[in-house]
Structures are given as C-alpha cells and as structure tokens.
C-alpha cells in the first residue's frame, strides 16, 4: 500500500509563496512534492493514491497556536491531561495542527499539576499536536497583571523554574517573563540551555531593561502592546524596544479589540514579517455551544468577540480562533493573505524552534495542512498526513 494522498487543484501557500492552480502530493505523512496541475498530469502516482479535489480552495501549512488557554469548555487550568487532549481534538475544527497549551500563574502545587498534565497528554493527541507548554508567568510584573491574578506573580526563583522544567519532562517551549525583575539574567541563561524561548510580557520594563534582556537572549514578546509599558518619548519602554529592534519577535491578537488595525499597519512597517506571530490567547468558553460560560473561575458572557465578566463587565479575554484571526488580518487589516498565513504557521514554527518538521509545505516536512475556502470555512485539517477534519 502506497499511503499516498494528492490534494489537487488548489492555491498552495508553501510558506514561501502562493502557488495558484497547484497540487500537493503527500506520502507516508510527509510532503512529497508541490506541482502545478499541468505537471501533475505527467506524474504517475501509485494506483491506490487517494486524490482529493479541493476545487480552488487555499492549501496552507497548518496553523500553530503558541498562546492558548482553553477552548470548547476545556482549559489548561483543569490540571487534567484529558482536558488538554480535548483541546487537541477541538482545535482541528479551526485549522490548527499544533499548539502550546498556555498556563496562567497560580498556586505552586496546582501550577506543577497543570504542567504535569500537559506532559502526560503529549504523544496521545487525537487532533492537533502538542509542541510543549507555554508558561505565562509567574515571573512577571504585578503592575502589568492584565487579566491575571497578581497574587500568584512572584520574584524570579531559579529553583522553582527547575521544578517547572522537571514537571514538564523538559517540554517547556515558551515562557513569558518581565525583563525588569531581579535575577532575570540568570533565568535567561538557564532557559537558553534548556531550549526554552523567553518572551517579554506583563512587564513594566524600561527601554534599558529591555536592552539588557535582549543581550541575555530574550528575543520574543507576549501579546504586543497589551499588559506592557507604553511607548514614551523619554523612555521607549517595552513597546518601543520591540518596534525599534528587528530581531525581537512579537505576538499579536488580531481580533480587532486587543490591537487597532492601524497598530497592525505600523507594526508591519517597522517589523520584519517573519517576526510577527498570530496567537489567539483564547479562553475556555471559546466555541462552547451550551452550558454556563466560565473563564478564570468566573462567569462570563460573549460581547463583541470578547469574553466579559458577568459581575462587573470587565473584559476577561479573547474568543479568537486562528482561522478568524487570518480572516480579520486579510479582510479588516489590509494584510496580504500570504503574510497572514506566515503569521499563523511559518513564523510560530520558527520562533519555538524545536519543531523544524512543520510550518511549511515543502518536500520532507510533516504534512500538517489546512484547507479553507474563500469564505474561510475549514474544508480539511491534516496532521502528519492523517485527515482529522473533513467538511462534508
């Protein structure tokens, strides 16, 4: 049996360029080739090849959500591997083929339990792959706590960091830290040796603090502009440093609320496109169709695409999905399709760096693929050549 699949007659975004009227050949879960429809006629595929005509839809590398807390009523704070696995199954509905389950700061033993749950879920996924844990703290600023509970934000503690890493089985991929905290340099050196990418976020760092952080290897940033020191003419702060230095990457939440469309335009002018990463930062009730909506242990309701606390109408967080983020970037923020897709797939794969087999539709890469139509409906999601979602 050849185990060959041919997705034919689509517009293929390879991660480098958009290729119209093209087909993708997949063999044994890997990309075999990308060819024009015309060239496909001359290729002799195995007789048992599964051929799927996508009727002009876009074929792109699967989306990678590197900052997500929950979806469909499941959450990383459940401290339960089954919740992480349910997130994995849900995410393929939105074209996501890999993700980093993301944890808020919380009481130490619970935090360790949540990290362990992510580790225990890895390798058992039925949908999107788990590329490790993302820790949004706890070494972050109480002055810039945002929606997070400041009582769980603590000074840098290298011994606790080692506990987190041990609980993860060495599978922490990304971590948000506040560069102004004492001891951050030592933490950065430890994380560099462990292959953990550090991102500046929930931070009141000055521009000088950020420059020291960059020298220590902190070259990513969490939800740009949100929960960070603002740009000022006498102190560019975290925001200014991110915009000034092209090697600092940044997350964006493209829901139209966390960032104004004009800020996206500004960012694209000052930042290399490969340094911008689309994330959802979405919460437990995202996509939930029944039952009480709960986020951060509080009841919320959905208003204008955001979850808002029922008690006081305070914004609790995002309900964005990756496919909606791509759509928003293209249709509402004047971002070319290929750039939006880079932000959703190639760029996150590059930033977390441990994963080099995905993020592109190129020979030898894992066949992690999303197919969507002109209305941004997900037609197919494929993980390592295995079809996880197929529209009727």
Uncertain parts: none
pLDDT averaged over residues? 95
How far is the first residue's CA from the last residue's CA?
26 Å
Helix content: 25-40%
Class per helix and strand makeup? alpha/beta
- What is the number of helical segments per DSSP (H or I, 4+ residues)? 10
Overall number of structural domains: 2
**Form type:** globular
Strand content: 25-35%
CATH superfamily of the largest domain: Metal-dependent hydrolases
Number of strands: 23
Biggest pleated sheet: 8 strands, mixed
Q: Determine Rg (CA atoms, Å).
A: 21 Å
Quickly give the CATH architecture of the largest domain: Alpha-Beta Barrel
CATH topology of the largest domain: TIM Barrel
> CATH first level of the largest domain: which class?
Alpha Beta
Structure description:
By secondary structure, the protein is α/β, with parallel strands linked by helices. The protein has 2 domains: 4-60 and 360-390, Urease, subunit C, domain 1, CATH 2.30.40; 63-352, Alpha-Beta Barrel (TIM Barrel), CATH 3.20.20.140. The protein is 27% helix and 28% strand. It has helices at residues 37-40, 81-91, 108-121, 158-167, 184-194, 207-215, 237-244, 261-270, 322-332, 337-352, and strands spanning 4-13, 18-27, 30-36, 50-53, 58-61, 63-68, 70-71, 74-75, 96-103, 129-130, 133-136, 172-177, 197-200, 220-221, 250-253, 276-279, 294-295, 298-303, 306-309, 315-318, 369-372, 378-383, 386-390. Strands 1, 2, 3, 4, 5, 21, 22 and 23 form an 8-stranded mixed β-sheet that branches. α2 (81-91) packs across α3, α6 (207-215) packs across α7 and α9 packs across α10.
């Amino acid at each position: 049996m050849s185990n060959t699949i041919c997705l034919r007659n689509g517009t293929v975004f390879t991660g480098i360029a958009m290729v119209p009227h093209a087909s993708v050949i997949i063999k044994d879960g890997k990309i075999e080739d990308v060819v024009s429809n015309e060239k496909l006629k001359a290729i002799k595929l195995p007789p048992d090849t599964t051929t799927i005509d996508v009727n002009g839809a876009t074929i792109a590398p699967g989306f990678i959500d590197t900052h997500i807390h929950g979806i469909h009523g499941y959450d990383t704070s459940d401290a339960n591997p089954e919740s992480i696995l349910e997130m994995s199954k849900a995410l393929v509905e939105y074209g996501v083929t890999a993700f980093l389950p993301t944890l808020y700061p919380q009481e130490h033993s619970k935090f360790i339990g949540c990290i362990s749950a992510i580790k225990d879920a890895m390798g058992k996924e039925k949908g999107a792959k788990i590329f490790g844990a993302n820790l949004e703290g706890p070494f972050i600023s109480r002055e810039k706590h945002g929606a997070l509970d400041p009582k769980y934000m603590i000074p840098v503690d290298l011994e606790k960091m080692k506990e987190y890493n041990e609980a993860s089985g060495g599978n922490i991929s990304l971590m948000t830290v506040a560069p102004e905290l004492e001891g951050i340099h030592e933490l950065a050196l430890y994380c560099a040796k462990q292959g953990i990418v550090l991102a500046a976020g929930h931070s009141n760092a000055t521009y000088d603090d950020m420059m020291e952080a960059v020298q220590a290897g902190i070259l990513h940033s969490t939800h740009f502009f949100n929960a960070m020191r603002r740009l000022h003419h006498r102190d560019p702060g975290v925001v200014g440093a991110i915009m000034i230095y092209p090697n600092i990457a940044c997350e964006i939440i493209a829901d139209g609320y966390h960032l104004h469309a004009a800020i996206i335009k500004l960012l694209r002018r000052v930042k290399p496109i490969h340094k911008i990463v689309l994330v959802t930062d979405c919460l437990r009730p995202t996509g939930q169709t029944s039952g009480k909506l709960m986020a951060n242990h509080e009841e919320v309701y959905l208003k204008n695409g955001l979850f808002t606390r029922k008690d006081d109408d305070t914004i609790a967080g995002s309900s964005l999905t990756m496919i909606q983020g791509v759509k928003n970037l293209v249709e509402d923020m004047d971002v070319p399709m290929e750039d939006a897709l880079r932000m959703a797939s190639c760029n996150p794969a590059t930033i977390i760096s441990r994963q080099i087999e995905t993020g592109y539709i190129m020979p030898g890469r894992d066949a992690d693929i999303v197919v969507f139509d002109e209305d941004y409906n997900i037609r197919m999601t494929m993980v390592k050549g295995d079809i996880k979602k197929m529209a009727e």
